[in-house]
Structures are given as structure tokens and as C-alpha cells.
Amino acid sequence: MHVRPIRADDVDRERCFIAALSEESRYQRLFYVLREPSLQLLSQLTTIDFDRTMALVVVDPSSSSGDFVAVARYARDTTGKSAEFAVTVANQWQGRGVGTQLTTTLFEFAARRGIEHIYGTVFATNERMLQVARNLGMTVTSVPGDASLMIVSLDLEAVRPTSPRCQPARRTQRGFMGQ
Ligand SMILES: CC(C)(COP(=O)(O)OP(=O)(O)OC[C@H]1O[C@@H](n2cnc3c(N)ncnc32)[C@H](O)[C@@H]1OP(=O)(O)O)[C@@H](O)C(=O)NCCC(=O)NCCS
Fold this sequence. Notes:
The protein is an alpha+beta fold.
């Protein structure tokens, strides 16, 4: 499988990736019902600066148009030391280790960029993501006052980078997590 940073010319691939997701997968990722992503949202999701915002995609090796198998992304919060992440795997590829591997690669990149702590919000019913998080050694905690949500988090000091280095910073973007 080929893993690469997302690019500005991935708008159509990102649109197709989102469109092909089951309603449940889309809702688990975004926490709202998204029927058709706007061009503005697609532009935000495909614009990264490799510093505050980062997104990696897994490309289907058998697809001539480079269809996405999975997308994982993070955005630094205002402290600069922590970042929120999210990961999505195309339904037909779920349960085959892609989410675990891509999340690991994203965390290694984040550690190299000086991010010390990474966290994500997950529905308490999202057993698959919670299992991925536990497999990665993440801490799983409940959200006070909201039994429907869990926070998964990890200190990145222990993450040892093994994948190739990526490129330097460009520009920042708001609304990058798509939420
Ligand atoms: C959550 C998600 C990213 C996981 O990616 P994936 O490629 O399917 O996950 P993997 O194959 O790497 O690992 C799945 C793990 O969950 C386990 N699992 C699968 N279904 C499960 C279930 N119903 N209950 C408990 N564990 C389950 C698998 O056994 C595996 O664990 P194991 O390696 O210990 O056996 C993917 O399912 C997805 O895109 N879901 C929709 C979007 C989403 O929920 N994103 C998370 C928001 S941050």
C-alpha cells in the first residue's frame, strides 16, 4: 500500500472517498450527518501545511485513479504541543489492519514534528476505533457529562519514528478536521 500526504489536487478523490463511506462510518468520523461535502470543506480537508495540519492517505494499489483506501489527519491545537487526530478507512477495507498502521504512521510523523500529545474523540459505541486505540497503547477516558463520547489519547514521547521524513511547513487552514 502506498502512503502519502494529501494534496490540493485530491479534492475529487476525497469527495469520492467520503461519498463511498457508509452513513455509519461518516457519522462516526464527523459526528454529524453529512450528505454532500461542500467544495469549501473539501478544500480544507485537502490543504495541509505539514506543521499545524497534516493528513496522510493510503492509496488503493489496484486503482488507476488513485482511489483512497484511508485518510488520517491531525490538527495542532492552540498550545502547539498537542493535536487532535481522526482516521477513516473505506468500508471494504475495514478490519484488515489499515487503520492501525496508518494511525501509527501519522503518530510517528506527529512525534517528529514536535507534537507531544495526541488525542481524538470517539463515540463510546465505536468499538472498532476504541480497540485500535487500545492496541496502540492509548488511554481511553470518558467525557464528563457526555456518556456518548470517549477521548483516546497518547503521549508521543514513546513513539519511535520509522517511516520516511516528509516536507516542511507551508500554510495554515481552519476547519481542517471537517467537524
Ligand atoms: C475505526 C477505523 C478507523 C478502524 O480502522 P480499521 O482498518 O477498520 O481497523 P484495524 O483493522 O486496524 O483494527 C480493527 C481492530 O478492531 C477490532 N474490531 C473490529 N470490529 C470490532 C468490534 N465490533 N468490536 C471490538 N473490536 C473490533 C479488530 O479485531 C481489530 O483489533 P485486533 O487487531 O486486536 O483484532 C475504521 O473502522 C473506520 O474508518 N471507521 C469509521 C470512521 C471512524 O470511526 N473513525 C474514528 C474516528 S477518530
